[in-house]
Amino acid sequence: MDVNTFEPRSDLSSLHQSVEAIRAEIGKVIAGQHEMIDLLITGLLTQGHVLIEGVPGVAKTLTAKLLARCVDADFSRIQFTPDIMPADVLGTSVFNPQSREFEYKRGPVFSNLILIDEINRAPA
Description:
alpha+beta, 35% helix, 4 helices, two-stranded antiparallel ribbon, two-stranded parallel ribbon, single chain
């Protein structure tokens, strides 16, 4: 066997096609953010977290929404403000007068993709 020859152990062609389809779909709306899109896809494939930093107006939120739509995932956004409470993230019990019972309304943290926006405003 030649040392310079690489033979993949798994066929990743379908994964490659899926990634290219996601890139193409997001690229229809987002222009010039190829590295950000690649890093978001990498974070998705590795089940990791991605920190997107940038000046306002470079389509960070829109890109995250598009990625969620492309992979058919739930998307939510948490706006971090100084008055944010745990119930704003986790959800809370709400009284239903028809059934006379409390019902749990899930918060945004129960989505597949969550954008935590303006984290620099978050309380300590």
